[in-house]
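During the no-cost extension, the postdoctoral fellow (Dr. R.K.) reprocessed legacy sequence entries with the updated structure-token encoder. One reprocessed record is reproduced below for audit purposes.
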Amino acid sequence: MPRILHIETATEVCSVALSHSNAKFAGAEEDTTGFAHAEKLTVLIDALMKKTNTEFNQLDAVAVSYGPGSYTGLRIGMSAAKGFCYALNIPLITISTLKAMAAGAVHLRDVENLLLQPDVVLCPMIDARRMEVYAAFYDKDLNEIRPPSADIIDANSYNDYLKKNKMLFLGNGAAKCKPVLSPKANTYFFDEFQLSAQNMIGLAHAAFKEKQFANLAYSEPFYLKEFQTGVKA
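Re-encoded structure tokens follow.
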């Protein structure tokens, strides 16, 4: 069975994980202190490989969280993943950051009772500055209900869905939007949720089994919005 290195750099969290044999977790290294992925990523990978007594030539694939998220963070993660794949001649697997977040949510004990109820919608959110978030909707089987979108959150956001569904919001975008969304009926928040490369494991192994590999030459991050530069003061 495959041994896969997982890379998550879409937000302020820099996280790597290793898995093998039927999606079994082997180890992880993470840094949550802020955006310094260019300096930290390879250091974390090296520490992970040493901790798990794994040689790079034992890897069968590299999975990377490809967005949406931080423009710089996504570029760093994708560049590192492609570099390893080229050097080791192994396939690249790209995983939606928001779907990986939803995958992490379905295994949370704190929300397992909520997920037993019908018509629950998972809404992972990533902060996109001001009152904008990157968000997508999934059911508890991780089927996509609504694709990733850049949403500006106000008092009317998601009203059509909340009339029919309970919605679980998670991620750093959800924390920002909680004061606006929480007064509505059918809203639930998991405040302690944190991105982790571990959330990618099940999705990556499923993709490997189906040989759903990305084009190594042409793969690029999913930014969702065009990059906008600020004006220097």
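Helices lie at 37-51, 71-88, 97-105, 112-115, 159-162, 172-181, 201-209. The longest helix spans residues 71-88. The remaining legacy entries will be reprocessed before the final report is submitted.
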